[in-house]
Amino acid sequence: MEKDKNKTKTDNKEAGMKGQSSIIKKADIIMLLLLVAAGMLGYFGLKAAMKKGGSVKVSIDGKVIETISLDDDGEYRIEVEGGYNLLIIKDGEAYLKEADCPDKLCVKQGHITKEGETIVCLPHKVIIEVIKD
Q1: How far apart are CA 103 and CA 120, in angstroms?
Q2: How confident is the model at residue 71 (pLDDT cuts 50, 70, 90)?
């Protein structure tokens, strides 16, 4: 008789836990979706709030060498010790078209137009940052 009571208690606990585990899974999924949605809203909201810049500041090894207006379309060759980067400014955007650094990650960073956006070439110690006029 005692064994039957213990078995019934154990069965009830297991049944209760099974119900809770499916609720926890649903709650976890809902929480994850809410966090992803909040992150996306924050990211896109921040991007939308960024102001369009007026110029790019070009620095080599922490020293500003040139400031160029985003309205001045053209190609600008940035000479560094042992190499170069080719900066293109066109239609209010700036990007690196070429570089002779080993990994060329700076070329893959894309176009920048808004205040605070940067392109960085670590091997050449070049930083290109969009600034306000």
Answers
A1: 12
A2: very high
Nearest Cα to 62, choosing from 131, 122, 132? 122
Residue 112, classified by CB atoms within 10 Å of its CB into exposed (0-12), middle (13-18) or buried (19+), is: buried
Spell out a b/e string for 59-88, using b for 16 or more CB atoms within 10 Å of the CB, else e: bbeeeeeeebebeeeeebebebeeeebebe
Q: Is the pTM of this model over 0.70?
A: no
Are residues 70 and 113 in contact, defined by beta-carbon separation less than 8 angstroms?
Answer: yes
Confidence of residue 122 (pLDDT cuts 50, 70, 90): very high
Which residues sit opposite 78 in a β-bridge?
A: 85
